[in-house]
Amino acid sequence: EKFFASRKLLAGKRLLVTAGGTVERFDPVRYLTNDSSGKMGFAIAEAARDMGAEVTVVAARTDVPAPGGVELVRVESAEQMLEAVLSRYAEADIVVKAAAVADYRPVERHASKLKKSAGTLTLELEKTTDILAELGRRKSGQFLVGFAAETERLAEHAMDKLRRKNCDLIVANDVTMEGAGFGGDTNAVQVFDRDGAALSLPVLSKRETAERLLGLVASRLGGASP
Ligand code: CTP
Ligand code: CA
C-alpha cells in the first residue's frame, strides 16, 4: 500500500476525478438519484494526492466527507457535472470517471411542489449526456479511465463501453458480488484496456484498489491514445 504512495508515481500530473451519484430534481424537494456513496472516487482522489498528483474532484451527492489536499468542486446533476468536467478537461493529464451519473433525468422540473391527485403519476424521463463518451470524443492527449458497473457478462459489456467511449482503461465491477460495488469500503475490480484484461484485483479496500489502479495508470502514461 505504501509502496505506490511513497514513490510519487504521479508527481507533476493533473488528475481530474468524478465521484458520487448525481441528483436529478423534478420539484423543489424531490429527486432521482442512485446508491453511489462517493467512496471509490474519493479514494482515488486521496491516493492520487499521495502519489504526488495535483487533484481536482468533481463530486455529486456523497455519503462520506471529501479528502483534504484536493480541489473540490460540488455539483448536483449530470448536466452540472458535464459542465464542471468539460471546463477542466483541457488541463487534465488523467481523468477518472468514478461517478455514478444518472442515465435519465426528469423532462420537467416543476417550480412548486407537486400536489397529489387521484390515480397514478407518470414521470417523463429523458437521456442525460454521456459525460465519459463526450470526453472520449474530445480527447486531446488525456489518459481517460472509465468505470463500468455490471450485473452480467462483465468483460463483454466493459470492453464494449471502453471502445464506444474511447477510454484508455475501463474499471469494471460486478455490483452483485459480495465485497464489490456501491456503498461498502471494499471493491473487487477488473481493469480492461483495448487488448482485453489488464489487471484483475481481489477484494481490497477502496483505497488499495485506487492505489493499484493508479499504479497501472502511471505505468501506462505516455502510451495514451490521442
Ligand atoms: N457515464 C457518464 N455519463 C453518463 C452515464 C455514464 O459519464 N450519463 C460514465 C460513468 O461515470 C462510468 C461509465 O460512463 O464511468 C459507465 O457507466 P455505466 O452506468 O456502467 O454505463 P452506461 O454507459 O451508462 O451503460 P448502462 O448503464 O446501460 O450499463
Ligand atoms: Ca448507466
Automatic annotation (TrEMBL):
<comment type="similarity">
    <text>In the C-terminal section; belongs to the PPC synthetase family.</text>
</comment>
<keyword id="KW-0285">Flavoprotein</keyword>
<feature type="domain" description="DNA/pantothenate metabolism flavoprotein C-terminal">
    <location>
        <begin position="10"/>
        <end position="218"/>
    </location>
</feature>
<feature type="binding site">
    <location>
        <position position="165"/>
    </location>
    <ligand>
        <name>CTP</name>
    </ligand>
</feature>
<dbReference type="GO" id="GO:0015941">
    <property type="term" value="P:pantothenate catabolic process"/>
</dbReference>
<keyword id="KW-0511">Multifunctional enzyme</keyword>
<protein>
    <recommendedName>
        <fullName>Coenzyme A biosynthesis bifunctional protein CoaBC</fullName>
        <ecNumber>4.1.1.36</ecNumber>
        <ecNumber>6.3.2.5</ecNumber>
    </recommendedName>
</protein>
<keyword id="KW-0456">Lyase</keyword>
<comment type="pathway">
    <text>Cofactor biosynthesis; coenzyme A biosynthesis; CoA from (R)-pantothenate: step 2/5.</text>
</comment>
<dbReference type="GO" id="GO:0004633">
    <property type="term" value="F:phosphopantothenoylcysteine decarboxylase activity"/>
</dbReference>
<comment type="function">
    <text>Catalyzes two steps in the biosynthesis of coenzyme A. In the first step cysteine is conjugated to 4'-phosphopantothenate to form 4-phosphopantothenoylcysteine, in the latter compound is decarboxylated to form 4'-phosphopantotheine.</text>
</comment>
<feature type="binding site">
    <location>
        <position position="103"/>
    </location>
    <ligand>
        <name>CTP</name>
    </ligand>
</feature>
<dbReference type="GO" id="GO:0071513">
    <property type="term" value="C:phosphopantothenoylcysteine decarboxylase complex"/>
</dbReference>
<dbReference type="GO" id="GO:0004632">
    <property type="term" value="F:phosphopantothenate--cysteine ligase activity"/>
</dbReference>
<comment type="function">
    <text>Catalyzes two sequential steps in the biosynthesis of coenzyme A. In the first step cysteine is conjugated to 4'-phosphopantothenate to form 4-phosphopantothenoylcysteine. In the second step the latter compound is decarboxylated to form 4'-phosphopantotheine.</text>
</comment>
<feature type="binding site">
    <location>
        <position position="161"/>
    </location>
    <ligand>
        <name>CTP</name>
    </ligand>
</feature>
<comment type="pathway">
    <text>Cofactor biosynthesis; coenzyme A biosynthesis; CoA from (R)-pantothenate: step 3/5.</text>
</comment>
<feature type="binding site">
    <location>
        <position position="147"/>
    </location>
    <ligand>
        <name>CTP</name>
    </ligand>
</feature>
<feature type="region of interest" description="Phosphopantothenate--cysteine ligase">
    <location>
        <begin position="15"/>
        <end position="226"/>
    </location>
</feature>
<feature type="binding site">
    <location>
        <position position="113"/>
    </location>
    <ligand>
        <name>CTP</name>
    </ligand>
</feature>
<keyword id="KW-0210">Decarboxylase</keyword>
<keyword id="KW-0288">FMN</keyword>
<keyword id="KW-0436">Ligase</keyword>
<dbReference type="GO" id="GO:0015937">
    <property type="term" value="P:coenzyme A biosynthetic process"/>
</dbReference>
<dbReference type="GO" id="GO:0010181">
    <property type="term" value="F:FMN binding"/>
</dbReference>
<keyword id="KW-0460">Magnesium</keyword>
<comment type="similarity">
    <text>In the N-terminal section; belongs to the HFCD (homo-oligomeric flavin containing Cys decarboxylase) superfamily.</text>
</comment>
<dbReference type="GO" id="GO:0046872">
    <property type="term" value="F:metal ion binding"/>
</dbReference>
<keyword id="KW-0479">Metal-binding</keyword>
